[in-house]
Amino acid sequence: MVLLLFLIGLACYLGMVGWVVYANNALPFKQPTEAIIVLGAQVKPDGTLSVQLHRRLATARKEYLQNPQLIITCGAQGRTEPMPEGEAMRDWLIAQGVPAEHVLAETQSFNTRENLLHAKAMMEERGLTRALVVTSDYHVARAVATCKQLDIEAWGVGAATDPPYWFKNYSREAVSWIKFWVEEMR
């Protein structure tokens, strides 16, 4: 009986991971936007960017070069990080040639919802309403769904995940979707 329950649970969990893959590949086509919101990821203790954060920023820079617009980099300072993620991201973009006046750092948020709430306020201060959210490929659908909850008109682009981390990241995202839905029901 325990084995049967385990197998049912495993099948449900793997089905959820499959749904996350589907959701991230079934997003609507990108529309013109007025701002790019880049969600944070780890800054290493030595100040270098994690691979995933570097990929998010490279993706945001590519989008910026195709359509120059305001970029908002999001993320507070974690306990092992030497500076807020938003600042490290802003500095990297400026070092890569994005004009400083086109990059704002949001440094107060610790999760996706907070990132997007603070970014929305920064957009509203400037009369902007349409955003392109740049995050990791496994996280795009939930980021866009969070935007919808917060009344942000948004589309998403995902930076590729390293193949060795693909299953781990998509599995974690499946759990995050369950949390998202539970919070939405409240």
Task: List descriptors.
alpha/beta, Rossmann fold, five-stranded parallel sheet, 6 helices
Task: Give an overview in words.
The chain is of the alpha/beta class. It has a single domain, classed as 3-Layer(aba) Sandwich (Rossmann fold). It is built from 6 helices and 5 strands, in the order αβαβαβαβαβα. It has helices at residues 2-25, 51-66, 85-95, 112-125, 140-149, 166-185; strands spanning 35-38, 70-74, 103-106, 130-136, 153-159. It has a 5-stranded parallel sheet. The two termini are 33 Å apart.
Q: What is the fold's blueprint, element by element?
A:
Elements: H1 2-25, E1 35-38, H2 51-66, E2 70-74, H3 85-95, E3 103-106, H4 112-125, E4 130-136, H5 140-149, E5 153-159, H6 166-185
Parallel strand pairs: 1-2, 1-4, 2-3, 4-5
Task: Summarize the model shown.
The protein starts with a helix and ends with a helix.
The beta-strand count equals 5
What does the largest sheet look like? Answer: 5 strands, parallel
* Strand portion: 5-15%
CATH topology: Rossmann fold
Total count of domains: 1
Structural class: alpha/beta
State the CATH superfamily name.
HUPs
Spatial extent as radius of gyration? 17 Å
SSE series = HEHEHEHEHEH
Quote the distance from N terminus to C terminus. Answer: 33 Å
Low-confidence stretches: none
* Overall body shape: globular
